[in-house]
Design a protein that fits this description.
Length: 209
């Protein structure tokens, strides 16, 4: 069973963060099968015992690695939402950050992880659905400023947006259709964005985005 919290051992962020950061790089390079605590410990010049002190199993370690990456992504969303810039720029910025993060790992490795550790994938899907509030706020700002259509029910639009992403953006979809996540995200972003903007918004997109 996958644990949702760290073990009772007191946290040591200064030690945990290098483990999680390098752990993600190793996973991206080698996938689940090639990802070992032995390699991680050797690369970081620390003992396996030290790593197991904070992450007792490989599954817990992988779960915490992805939680760490997703937390950083959520923090980026927060920073962008707080900026005094055009809401359409915010939309494009956060979608770009998602693309950047996804592009660090091959879709084959993601598919392998989903199959072997479904609880980790469930965390990723929960994170994606939780971003609905972020996109709703951005769309709301766009509507207030005249860039997003007034006739749209933004509650429904934001819900549809995130659920389409969660339902379609699965590793099996990319592999079956031989598509790259980067290309699909950019096309989806463009189709969705053009569908919700006003003439003013479309003009901004054409001129600046």
């Amino acid at each position: 069973m996958t644990h949702k919290t760290f073990p009772s051992t007191p946290r040591n962020k200064a030690l945990e963060e290098p483990i999680l950061e390098h752990g993600f790089r190793l996973f991206a390079q080698n996938g689940v099968k090639g990802f070992t605590v032995e390699t991680l410990a050797k690369d970081l010049a620390m003992s396996k015992k030290t790593i197991y002190k904070y992450f007792p199993t490989k599954e817990i370690l992988l779960q915490k690695i992805f939680q760490y990456i997703l937390t950083a992504l959520a923090a980026h969303f927060d920073r962008v939402r707080g900026k005094n810039i055009n809401p359409l720029d915010k939309f494009v910025n956060v979608m770009g950050e998602i693309t950047k993060t996804i592009s660090k790992v091959s879709i084959t490795r993601i598919n392998e992880m989903k199959a072997r550790y479904p609880a980790v994938w469930k965390d990723i899907e929960s994170f994606r659905l939780a971003r609905r509030a972020d996109f709703f706020q951005i769309m709301q700002e766009g509507q207030t400023q005249g860039y997003v259509r007034e006739d749209l029910d933004l509650e429904i639009a934001a819900t549809l947006f995130m659920n389409i992403i969660n339902s379609v953006f699965q590793p099996e979809f990319f592999l079956a259709n031989q598509l790259s996540p980067k290309m699909v995200i950019e096309i989806f972003r463009d189709i969705f964005l053009r569908g919700i903007v006003t003439h003013k918004g479309l003009k901004y997109i054409e001129e600046k985005l």
